[in-house]
Amino acid sequence: MKKKLLLITMAISIGMTACGSEKLETTDNADSNSIEITDNDSSDADMELSEDAVTDSSEDITSDVGDENANESAIGDLSSEIKAKVEGIQASGCTLQEELEQVESLEAAYTDIAAETQMEMNMVASYGTEVWDAELNGLWKRMSNELDATTKEKVLKEQREWNEIKEKAAKGMTTMYEGGSIQPMIYAQELANINKNRCYVLASIYAKKLGQSVKIPARKEYGAYIDNQGTGDVYSELYIYEGQESGSAFADIGIYKLTTFHGDVTKTSDGYDFEDQEGRVKGKITYSNEGASFEVTESAAGLANVGDKYEFPWAF
């Protein structure tokens, strides 16, 4: 564990040197206030785009822990430590692309900390969520001062919707683990990935303002897609899960809170072919970073109409 903690410090220091001369320092008194966006907030520049509270912590991920209880000592509430490291990366003078790459390395360093018990594994998984939560808020604090009023208003509206449904999307991706001891870990991993995806979206918007470019990673094969009808509620949902057998996958599709289909999916060149478990409905799923769609190709009477196409504009 001692070696792991020191490697985290070395990895970040090397990255900082590559982008600027400013050093990344560890602090224990990082600002612990997280502000939720509401329609009544008057100071957009000071808002944080996520709802996850950031709390102070006395733990130091770079501390030289050398006793036999090092693993137990190192795993705990590291929120303020994580936030300080992310803020150091943001202040280093990197391009946005370099910044995101460094934050990805930071996430990997934290989530690779050795854990023995399931409780420790759950805690370590949550570090990834906190890393991208801090990056998300830091991006907004900078870009909110530079975006034009129209773009800023559009981003705020989208972010309010995203905040309201992101946890529902993450929970939807863990339904098969409901009640199990690993559900918190899987949930944290899904939420971290959701936060990461959103960071890339915001960074790509900000990059245009700065005359830079950000390459959004290719969409993973598995994920959540939501139609919220412009509200904070879920009206239709599509979840694509990895199956237990190698190369297998399945999906849950909920349409307008009225009909739900569960079945296997087969990968194609442009998406998935879907067939529900009872063979009543078949369709075509397409997906991208911009959302997903499900088009009915075959259907038993009354369940759906052939040719109907359902859109899921939020990709998580």
Automatic annotation (TrEMBL):
Which spans does this entry mark as compositional bias, Polar residues? 27-37
Protein's UniProt keywords contain Signal: yes
Q: Ligase as a keyword?
A: no
Leader sequence range is 1-20
**Ranges where the record places region Disordered:** 24-70
Q: Which domain of life is it from?
A: Bacteria
**Keywords (A to Z) from UniProt:** Signal
Q: Where is the composition biased (Acidic residues)?
A: 38-70
Span of domain Lysozyme inhibitor LprI-like N-terminal: 114-202
Which PANTHER family does this chain map to? PERIPLASMIC PROTEIN (PTHR39176:SF1), PERIPLASMIC PROTEIN-RELATED (PTHR39176)
Name-wise, this protein is: Uncharacterized conserved protein YecT, DUF1311 family
Q: Which organism is it from?
A: Butyrivibrio hungatei
